[in-house]
Amino acid sequence: MPSWIRAVILPLSGLLLSLPAAADVKARSCSEVRQAYGAKGFSLADIPYQEIAGEHLRICPQEYTCCTTEMEDKLSQQSKLEFENLVEETSHFVRTTFVSRHKKFDEFFRELLENAEKSLNDMFVRTYGMLYMQNSEVFQDLFTELKRYYTGGNVNLEEMLNDFWARLLERMFQLINPQYHFSEDYLECVSKYTDQLKPFGDVPRKLKIQVTRAFIAARTFVQGLTVGREVANRVSKVSPTPGCIRALMKMLYCPYCRGLPTVRPCNNYCLNVMKGCLANQADLDTEWNLFIDAMLLVAERLEGPFNIESVMDPIDVKISEAIMNMQENSMQVSAKVFQGCGQPKPAPALRSARSAPENFNTRFRPYNPEERPTTAAGTSLDRLRTVWRTMQHSVTDIKEKLKLSKKVWSALPYTICKDESVTAGTSNEEECWNGQSKARYLPEIMNDGLTNQINNPEVEVDITRPDTFIRQQIMALRVMTNKLKNAYNGNDVNFQDTSDESSGSGSGSGCMDDVCPTEFEFVTTEAPAVDPDRREEESSSAAQGSYSLLSWPLVCMVLALQRLHR
């Protein structure tokens, strides 16, 4: 080749060889990374303008990079924070479901209890005056214990209701036998005969079972909402392991280090990272789903046979039956008590003569429902029905939300990875970040749960060390599920009823349309005469008036109580 040609070609070849190098320098600019990095709120002081050698990188590929060591550390912490926020935001629905529904149900039920007690008190004070106020602690204690049970107190409903009827028997026994003086020991003996004598018939037993079932269902349901709320709040606050943090950094911010800040992770790549990071949460799913199923079953009970409506509807029949049984058997009851507890001492003559208030008659007109007092706060028994209907709507709403929360923990990776702000989506599998470059992600997707992460290509997971905190939540759910199953069957943890339970249905009010009597006559026990003079007759008259006046408030009280249990 002539020398002059060689002199021309060599400089040209040198120029041509230098052109790709110039283009390469332009492609390695970190300007886009600087812009994206600054948008995250980080200082641009540490970020280079052009790619540098990446031997210093500990997580991202050690190739030419836009990341310094400081940048990799900061972006690693940023990926951890973003992951924690993603989990919390994704689980927001289930957390708010339990928080808001627990608050609503609890408010309704407490309002139901408060209104029932206030309605009862207002009605009895207005209608029965001093007689009710002198015996009001019997009813107040009943409501107090019911509230204490509902709020988680150590109350045995069966024993508490037995005690209520025993105390009621003591009060009534004194009123139907005013010619005698009864000591505390004697009255305690009387209460011991409650089960044996059955002065109120079978009503206390049936009522006990109905009330117990309704309150067990309500209390256990609200406890379930509490447990669900607490578990959801705790599980949603994740603490990623070092292996998870490395995988998150590699997935979310190694594209920055490679000069590709706008390229998002591949969907399947994201799934493997999330399945590895949330492996223990996914193991919660089985027990969580069983818990949700049990909650739904108890919710059905609250809408169906264990709701307070079913307890209230036949209450007038049951209470009327109880009072009539006490009336009809008063002589036999007194005689058997006298036989078992001994003959009581006669009451002082002055007390016996003044047993009955002068303004009370031996005949007592029935209470007119139209005269039921309604306070400005709306605490009538009609108000109770309104509150209960509202609470039933709340139960229906809770059921729908609970159904949506099933499989929520195993679904977390899928929910997070379908977020367009996180991944490139399923329709862009070629132009996405696969952990090394912008290309398709090839590894298979792992199954859910800790043991299935043994071959996870993205996250180092020690399958031999389950998360202790998650296992605690699993145990809490398991315990609550067992309680819910007991409540579904009408049994509390410490309450088991082996007796046969009838349907509890009655024949209505016991009256044929409008032929019910407008007045009630109550017969008292004819105790042996203490004194042949007129004081004996006055004493008997006083007993008759007192007994009739006590009996009707009892009817109304238990009616209100049953409506409460509704």
How would you describe this structure to a colleague?
The structure is a single chain. This protein is an all-alpha fold. It has a domain of 344 residues. Helix content is 62%, strand content 1%. The protein contains 21 helices and 4 strands. The protein has a two-stranded antiparallel sheet. Strands 3-4 form a two-stranded antiparallel ribbon. α4 runs antiparallel to α8 and α8 packs antiparallel against α20. The N and C termini lie far apart (110 Å). The C terminus is likely disordered.
Task: Please write out the topology.
Blueprint: H1 3-27, H2 31-39, H3 69-90, H4 92-150, H5 157-176, E1 180-181, H6 184-192, H7 194-197, H8 203-235, H9 242-252, H10 254-257, H11 267-277, H12 279-283, H13 285-303, H14 308-312, H15 315-328, H16 330-341, E2 345-346, H17 349-353, E3 363-364, H18 381-404, H19 412-417, H20 468-488, E4 520-521, H21 534-565
Antiparallel strand pairs: 1-2, 3-4
Helix pairs in contact: 3-9, 4-5, 4-8, 4-18, 4-21, 5-6, 5-8, 8-13, 8-20, 9-11, 13-18, 13-20, 15-21
Index terms:
566 residues, mainly alpha, two-stranded antiparallel ribbon, two-stranded antiparallel sheet, 1% strand, disordered C terminus
